[in-house]
């Protein structure tokens, strides 16, 4: 996991980034790995990929954060990206993989009412979708 996180930081190659994010996403399906990724500062590194200009990289980052969001401590860190995820959902092509990945993450983040206030301005857009 540490090597995958370092790889994300070390490369600008979108294909390598996608593969590393897929591996991290798959690893995050196991609760023990969710804590490890957080403790390795993986959440902020993956979250930083949401600013990437390549839609597939953003999508894979959203998928990884989605799997990581099944952990309350991770949600506390992931919540800083909610506004950015909402913007990505609003600007992505309708029903695109990127838009659906963002909506899945927002669904997980809205299970409790802790972060609803960060999504409220995007509700009209979500209703149009």
Structure description:
- With 129 residues, this protein is an all-alpha fold.
- It has a single domain (1-118), classed as Leucine-rich Repeat Variant (Alpha Horseshoe), CATH 1.25.10.
- The protein has 10 helices and no strands.
- The relative contact order is 0.13.
The main sheet comes to: none
The DSSP helix count reads 10
Rounded average pLDDT: 95
CATH class: Mainly Alpha
- CATH H-level superfamily: Leucine-rich Repeat Variant
Spans of 5+ residues with little confidence (pLDDT < 50)? none
Taking Cα atoms only, what radius of gyration do you get, to the nearest Å? 14 Å
Shape: globular
Strand portion: under 5%
The second-level CATH architecture is Alpha Horseshoe
| CATH topology-level name | Leucine-rich Repeat Variant
Helix and strand element order? HHHHHHHHHH
> What's the end-to-end separation, in Å?
36 Å
């Amino acid at each position: 996991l540490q090597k995958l996180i370092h790889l994300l930081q070390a490369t600008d190659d979108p294909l390598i980034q996608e593969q590393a994010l897929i591996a991290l996403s798959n690893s995050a399906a196991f609760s023990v790995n969710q804590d490890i990724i957080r403790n390795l500062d993986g959440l902020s590194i993956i979250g930083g990929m949401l600013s990437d200009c390549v839609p597939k990289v953003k999508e894979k980052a959203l998928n990884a954060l989605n799997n990581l969001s099944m952990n309350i401590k991770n949600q506390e860190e992931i919540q800083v990206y909610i506004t950015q995820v909402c913007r990505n959902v609003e600007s992505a092509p309708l029903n695109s993989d990127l838009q659906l990945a963002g909506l899945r993450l927002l669904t997980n983040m809205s299970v409790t009412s802790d972060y609803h206030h960060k999504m409220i301005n995007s509700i009209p857009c979500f209703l149009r979708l």
